Amino acid sequence: MIDIRALREDPDAVKAALGRRGVDGAEVDAVIEADAIWRARQRTAEELRSEVKALSRDVGLAMKEGDTARADELRERSRVLGDEERARAAEAEEAETRVRTGLLYLPNIPADDAPDGEGEDDNVEVRRWWPGQDLDRPGPQRLEHQQVPHWEIGEALQILDMERGARLSGSMFPLYRGPGARLLRALTAFAIDRHSPTYEEIRPPTVVLTDTMISTGHLPKFEDDAYHIERDDLWLIPTAEVPLTSMHRGEILEENELPMRFTASTPCYRREAGSAGRDTRGLLRVHEFDKVELFAYTTPEGALDAQADILRRGETMLQELELPYRVLDLCTGDLGGSSARTFDLEAYSPGVDRWLEVSSVSWFRDYQARRANVRFRPASGGQPQLVHTVNGSALAWPRIWAALVETGRQPDGTVVLPEALAPYLGGELLIKAP
RNA sequence: GGAGGGAUGGCAGAGCGGACGAAUGCACAGCUCUUGAAAAGCUGCGAGGUGCGAGCCUCCGUGGGUUCGAAUCCCACUCCCUCCGCCA
C-alpha cells in the first residue's frame, strides 16, 4: 500500500498521481477523512487510557500503605473511566479499519517515467528483436509452414492433449505428453541454470495463507482471480511472486545483504474470471501453468538496476530460444495495481500470428514491502526503512511452448527446437509424430 | 488423530498480578586508553502510532476473557519440540 503520510502531507499530489491510472479522487478523499477521524478518536481513547493507568498505580500504592478506603475509591473511579475508555477505543478501531481497508484497495503510485495512457493500446514499444537482426533481416518472419496454431501441431504430434486435460479438470487445464511434457521440464532446467546461483533457487509452498496473498496486493481487491481452498482457508498462488515476497515478511534485513535475489519454478493458478471466453483454445490462457520467476528485495537506490537485470535476463533467454520479441513499457492505465513501472516481454508466435506476453517485469517501490513489512537497517545506521521489491517472469512456459512449437514447425509437420535446449533434451531437438 | 513441553528485544535468556518495554550476557555503534589493533573501561542501543513539543499510547506467538491494574491468571487457536498412531 502507499504511505499514509504522503496522503496526509500532500493529498493533492497523491490524487493527481493516482488519477493518471484512473483512480477516482473521491476514493482517496474517503481514506483521508477516515484517517482524520481515526486520529482524533485515538487521542481521546489514549488520554483516558493514560488516566486509568495512573489511577491503577495509585490503587497499588494505597494498598501498600494499608489505606483500604482510598484504594476502594480510586478503584471505582478507574473502573468507570475504564468503561469509557473501552467505548472510545472501539470507535477509534472502527475508523482505523476503514483507513486500513481503504489503503489496501488503493493501487500504487505510478513511476514518473511510466507513460500515460488508458489501456493496453497506449503501451509504448521500446525495443524489438528477432533472430538475424544484426544481419539486416527486416523483421520477424512468418513462413508458410509456420502458419499452424500450436493446438493443431500439438494434436498431430501427440504432445498436447487439451481434451483429456479438460476431462480431468475442465477447460483450460492443459495436459502435455511425451516430448511435449519433456520440453516443459527442459525449459525449467534451462532457466534455473541461467539464473542460479546469482538468484538463489527456491522451491516455496504453492498453497499459502491469506496474509501472504495480501502482501503482494492479490488480496483483498482481486479475490475473484484466485483459487481458494475454503476448508483450510488457503489460497493457490497465481505466481511465485506471492510466496517470494512474503519469504522475509516481518523481518529487518541488513543493508549489506541486499539485493537479495531469488528464483523459483512453481505452478501458477489463475481463475481468469475476468476473461471468460477469451483465448480459450490452446495454451494462450490456462488455469494452471508452470513459470520460473526472478525476484529481488533491494534498497530504494538499487531497485531500478535490479529491474533492469531481470528484464535483461528475460530478453537473453528469448534470444537463446531464438524467438522474436518486443519490450513494452506499460502505460499507467495498463499497469498492475501494485506496480509503479512494468516492462512486458512479448514473444512473437507465427501460428497464431500474435505477440504473446511471456514476462512482466515490475518495480513495486515500497508498496508490497509496506504490506509485507519487510525492512532493512541502513549500513550507515539509523531507523530501519522499507525495502523495494522487483520481480519478473523468466519465463511463463505455456506461451513459450506455443511459440517454440509454432516457430519450429517444418514443412513436413515435424518441429525442430532451438540449439540452446539440446543439453536439456538429451540432444533430441526433433519432435515428430510417434 | 492422541499425550506432554514450549513461544519474551538482532541472538541467548530472566521475569510468572502492581511504576516491566521488560534484568543479564552476546552482538552492534560512539568515546577513552593505544603508534595501530586487540583487550579493558565508559556511554548508547527493539519496533510502531500520535502530538509543534514535554510527553502520551500500543506491542512479551495470535484472538478473546478476568481485574482498578496482565508478559504474569483463565479460554480458544497457531506454530515449534518430544513421544504414540497413521501415511508418500
Description:
The protein is built from twelve helices and 16 strands. By secondary structure, the chain is an alpha+beta fold. The strands form four sheets. Strands 1-9-10-11-14-8-7-2 form an eight-stranded mixed beta sheet. A three-stranded antiparallel beta sheet has the order 3-5-4. α5 (150-156) packs across α12 (397-407). The radius of gyration is 27 Å and the shape is elongated. The model has no long low-confidence stretch (mean pLDDT 91). The structure holds one RNA strand of 88 nucleotides.
Find the structural class using helix and strand composition: alpha+beta
Average predicted local confidence, pLDDT: 91
Number of strands: 16
The largest sheet, given as strand count, sense and whether it forms a barrel, is:
8 strands, mixed
Low-confidence stretches: none
* Rg calc: 27 Å
**What is the spatial order of strands in the main beta sheet?**
1-9-10-11-14-8-7-2
Order of helices and strands: HHHHEHHHEEHEEHEEEHEEEHEEEHEE
DSSP helix fraction: 25-40%
How many angstroms separate the termini? Answer: 53 Å
- How much beta, percentage-wise? 15-25%
Number of helices: 12
**Which outline best applies?**
elongated
